């Protein structure tokens, strides 16, 4: 069940810059804890996480034109710092 805690890598410009220093960003399930994410990373990618920061991103109201609106869902993301010398090849170059 651990492998379903991590939904996907969160690939942005900032995440690409962080990956150079050994930090990676993942979208995770809303109920995931740091310990569970650490176990899932070990199982899926076979890497050791040193530090995990969890951020709940709030839902936002998006606008299209003057009147039409749409609600953008919130999500939970985890910023993972890996042990020195370890890396993941998830960021496209």
What does this structure look like?
The chain is an alpha+beta fold. Helix content is 20%, strand content 40%. The protein contains two helices and six strands, in the order βαβαββββ. The protein has helices at 13-19, 34-45, and strands at 6-9, 23-28, 49-57, 60-64, 68-72, 75-82. The strands form two sheets. It has a four-stranded antiparallel sheet. β4 (60-64) and β5 (68-72) form a beta hairpin. The longest helix has 12 residues, at 34-45. 15% of the residues are buried. The model has no long low-confidence stretch (mean pLDDT 90).
Kindly list the characteristics that best describe this protein.
single chain; 93 residues; alpha+beta; 4-stranded antiparallel beta sheet; two-stranded antiparallel ribbon; 2 helices; 6 strands
**Major sheet strand order:** 1-2-6-3
Secondary structure tally, helices: 2
SS strand fraction: 35-45%
Indicate the overall shape. globular
Order of helices and strands: EHEHEEEE
Spans where pLDDT lies below 50 across 5 or more residues: none
* Proportion of helical residues: 10-25%
Task: Note the gap between the termini.
Answer: 31 Å
Radius of gyration: 15 Å
Mean of the pLDDT scores?
Answer: 90
Number of strands: 6
Largest sheet: 4 strands, antiparallel
Structural class: alpha+beta
